[in-house]
Amino acid sequence: MTPLERLAAYGAGAPVDRLPCVPIVGNTAARVIGVKVGDFRGNGALIAEAQVAAYRLFGYDIIRIFTDLYTQAEAMGAKVTYPEDETAFLAAPAIDDLGDIDRLRPADPYRDGYLPQHLEAMRRAVDQVGNEVAVTGAVTCPFTNASFLVGADKLVRLMMRAPEKVHHLCELSLQTNIAYAGAIIDAGCTPSLTDAMSSMSVISPRQFREFSFPYLERLIDYIHGRGTSVTLHICGKTAGIWEAMVEAGADCLSIDNDADLGEARLAVGDRVRLMGNVHPSEVMLQGIPDAVGRATLSCLAQAKDSPKGFIVASGCSLPTETPFANIHAMLDTVRAAGWPARTLPLP
To answer: Where is the Uroporphyrinogen decarboxylase (URO-D) domain (predicted)?
Structure first.
C-alpha cells in the first residue's frame, strides 16, 4: 500500500498491511543527500529534495516540511542564527522594548522571511510524491510564536503583569498562522501544528487555557473550515491539558516522550487519534536498532488498539545525527508487527 492508501484505509476501518509509522524526520534529511543543515536556509528546492529522498529511503507515511521553529517569527522581525551545520536558533526576539509592540505586523507567507521558500519546498514535494504520500507543513502555534517575538522569559512575566500584551502578541501570531496555514493548504499540503511553549513543562494548565487555548481553537477552526484535519504536537508534559487539546479541535495528538502514551490512550483515546512516542534522543539518536525495536514494541503495546487509532512515531523531531539504521529499525518493527498488530518477541 502507498502511505496515502494506508492512511485512508486505516481511517475508514478497512484492512491495512500495517499501522502508519512516522519517525519525525527534520534536519536528518540533510544527511540523506549529503548536505549541511545550513544549506537549507532560503533554499526550498533543496529542502524538498532532502525530504523526498528521506521518504524514499525509509518509507514512512507522512512527509513533514520543517527546518526549525522560527520561520514565522523571523518573518515578523525576529533574528535567527543559522549555524553552518546545526539547527537554527533564536538570536534575538523581534522587539526588545514593549513600546515597539504596535510596530509588529502579521507576516505575509508569500513575501516575508523564508516562508516563501518553505512553501516552494511543499509544492515541489507534492509535485514529486504527492500522489503517494501526504505532505505536511509545520506551523508554530500562536503562543509559542509570541514567545519568539518578545523572548520567552519576558512573555512569562507579561502573563502576570500585562496579560493584555500577551493576548495582543498571540493575536498577531494567530493572523500569521492563519495566513501561512492557508498558503500551506493552497500548496496541496496539510498544516501540522507544533506548540512547544504551551507545554506544562513551561506554563500551568490554567495559563494554557487563558493564553494559548483560545488562539489554538481559532487556528484549528480555520484549518477545519478549509476541509483539512489537524495534528497537534505540544512538547514535554501534557497530561493536564490533553482534555483542552481535544476540546480545541485537534484530530490527532502527537504525544511527546515525556508523557505517558498509555495514560493518553485511557484519557482521550476514545475521542482523538494518538501518535508517538519513541524517545528521539535517548533511543533514536543514542540507541542501537535493537533498542529502537523494543521501544517501538512498547508503544505498540500501549496504544495499538486505541479506539480512534494510533500512529507509531518518535516523540518529537529526530536529532540531525540520528543513525539511519535506527530509523529503518522503527519501520521494520512496525512492518513485522503487521495489522492487527501482533505481539513480537523483544529483540
So the answer is: 3-336
